[in-house]
Input
Amino acid sequence: QVQLVESGGGLVQAGGSLRLSCAASGRTFSGYDMGWFRQAPEKEREFVARIVWSSGSTYYADSVKGRFTISRDNAKNTVSLQMNSLKAEDTAVYYCAAKNTAGMPYAYWGQGTQVTVSS
Output
């Protein structure tokens, strides 16, 4: 059973930084694609960033490119999202997700962690 647990959310002023972590358990994640998504109030959930665990290849939404960095720690089985130069529009619940099949939807989701950026 795959389990994903996010942490690191909180309240920060615009221009500040936060680091989110996703602790993954239940499988060997070397063949997995790990993603971060977010959902703001009254908006649909949107893609933020993803990392291919085996290769370390990363992909970002245009809205966060150059400000956010996704990474993984093989030893700790965690995926992190370093968020710099935060803006009010980054306010959302952030979710960690995992899948092991290319081209398919993410199958596993964490419970989410709230990020609030005050302007």
Remarks:
- Residues 4 and 24 are 5 Å apart (CA to CA).
- The longest strand covers residues 18-25.
